[in-house]
Amino acid sequence: MKLLPFLRPPTFRHGVHPDEQKAATAGLPIERMPFVEEYVMPLAQHIGAPARAIVEPGQRVERGEMIAEPGGFVSTAHHAPATGTVRAIDLRPHPSGRLQPAIVIGADPFSSQRLSADAQPLPKGLPGPELVRRIQDAGLVGLGGAAFPSHVKLQVPEGKKARFVMLNGCECEPYLTCDHRIMLERPRAVIGGLRLIMEQVGAERGYVGVENNKADAIEALRQAVGREGLPIEVFALQVKYPQGAEKMMIDAILRQEVPSGGLPLDLELLVNNVGTAAAMVDLVETGQPLIERVLTVSGDGVRRPANLLVPLGTSIEAVLDYCGGMLPETRQVLLGGPMMGMAQKNLDAPIVKGTGGILASLRPAPFIEEEPCIRCARCLEACPLYLNPARIALLAREERVPELSTYHAMDCFECAACSFVCPSHIPLVQLIRMGKAMVRQAAEAEAS
Amino acid sequence: MARDAPRLRIKTAPYVHTGLSTRRLMFEVVASLAPVVLCAAWYFGVSAVLVVAAATAGAVGTEWVFMDKSDGHLLGKHSLGTLRDGSALLTGVLLGLTLPPAIPLWMAFLGGFVAISLGKVIWGGLGQNLFNPALVGRAFLQAAFPITLTTWVPPGASFWDLRSGTFAAPLMNAVDGVTSATPLGLAKFEQQITPIRALLSGDTAGSLGETSGALLLICAVYLGVRKVFDWRLPLATILSVALFSGALHLIDAEIYPSPLFMLCSGGFLFGTVFMVTDPVTSPITPRGEWIFGLGVGLLVVLIRLFGGLAEGVMYAILLMNSVTPLINRVTQPRKFGG
Prior knowledge:
Chain A is an alpha/beta fold and 448 residues long. Chain A has helices at residues 23-26, 128-137, 150-154, 178-185, 187-201, 215-228, 246-254, 274-286, 316-322, 378-382, 389-397, 401-406, 417-421, 428-447, and strands at residues 30-32, 38-42, 52-53, 60-61, 66-69, 78-79, 84-93, 99-107, 164-169, 205-211, 232-237, 269-273, 292-298, 306-311, 332-335, 342-343, 357-361.
């Protein structure tokens, strides 16, 4: 197979092949999780400034009503995921492991949980800036994991152009199948969202990148495109981690590299997640803000793996309970995938906008004592950005800050492919993270 | 907060791993050396096994002496200490296979000691050394006992016949008996070319591990397919020797032997498959690997054809080892998008 690269689907160079582990949930339709008793909406669940609460304890809120307003331009609003009463605005467990300010809502058990009357379909032909404001007020963020506020991307800065829009349906993290199910079950919403973005930024072509382990989703999307004869192309990409990193997907589809330190916009390109596109269509067609998301519950510690549509703010524990409960021997619970996700200690932490999955495992990979680096170069062969992870990790360990920049430490987006392959079990990506923090600190010190 | 959380483990991402370990890599190479040791035993009898065992004992014993035993346990932290990683074992076996069959065992043992102590430990242990430890051991022996290290015996004789030097006491001049020249010595000093078939089967005089070219090629394929080493290094080295010796052969086939002879004779294949590919002492960058291989090949050709020695693989590799950090520095990969 490796001998015939021209016969294989496009991809980027380097990368790794973790076990896919998607079979347990790939065939399961998305089911709606019932409402629970309490919801915890952290004010910070996106990149940028946290939102500002606009409700008081004791206040009654309707499902879909705004409860926190954007805290700046790179920030977004939050909404009540269920009708009920604000119980408190207080510090609560957050998926980051810290306690964070959050709005706690007790759901009204007798409410019909219809959307608030404020939520109305958007009028057709809204002017661009108005649509951007509506999207910000609807709390839309990138649902692929980074949770970057969507409206910021849709406002193309002066002097820049976005001639192409790309949707990311790669879903290269093992286990996760939520994007797969969204593309398969709602292909027209995905393509509709893509068209919406294209119209908003005046793009001439659209692309969707999907790893070719999701043939049914690719087919569904192609049908949705084909029917209407749109300038949109669906690409089947090679299954390889991190194919879903936006730089890697752009490289695979357009054979162009986003400049180091730059944005896709430097290539006149805009990238969004497929789930985000579908959420945008929901907003335009029904007025529903971002109050729920699809996530995958999987791993051998879960009795009943599932793809669930879950109201934001639901606790990890409630989701696991809905899936038949977690086996008592479970030793690890992750939010997100096993390559870039985060281990959780407190299962009271809520599902937030960037949560793509809950993985419970009985036998997590054992902790293996680190051994000396033997310079085998496997990390260099894995790094999708052609960095030298072993070297950067060593420099970080020795706190040689100026040299960290010479080796482009800041380019790393922490995909963890280097740690995945290291035969000496050196925590490379963790050391690089520390190195990046050192560089940032040094820059701040210099500035002040 | 809710009920007692179960015993959940917290660590940072990633939560999955290939399962490959340095230990596993080392033992894969050791395993691939087993047929080479057997082949040496086939041609040179029980002495071959004893020499390899003595060198290994020297290397492993030295590792044991120097390793961290700060927990008061005789075998050091974590049961076997740094013996666990298998690198001392590998160094010992490799060293043993670079030695002549009739070398006294005490010399092989001493070589193992030097290989680990001066070749590795003094640099800071595994991964820190500049030079290939096994070759450091051999270079020491060659400097200390030049006659013994260049005295070759012909293959054959019965398996249980000990080679004359094997049990010689330390510092006694013990080398005698039947000696023979290596194919490279014959070519250089007597203009006599050994047929390729003999070189491939290994039925020639030489160091223990360097005799059968065919077997070494099989090892190379095994290690390459199992992705134990990077194929660029051996390929670059082989291409380099073929290129340079081929060019010379075209200029004057009378003086310069054919590239095929150059590739199959002496320690070239053994060094290329097992020492050029040592990850610690070879460059880490892809371009650096090509440069390293090219350099080793060029030096081998220069030393063999224009130098005073018949064989030059050891010095070629050691010399290129010394510039590895420099090669790494100037061949840093281009960054994505820049």
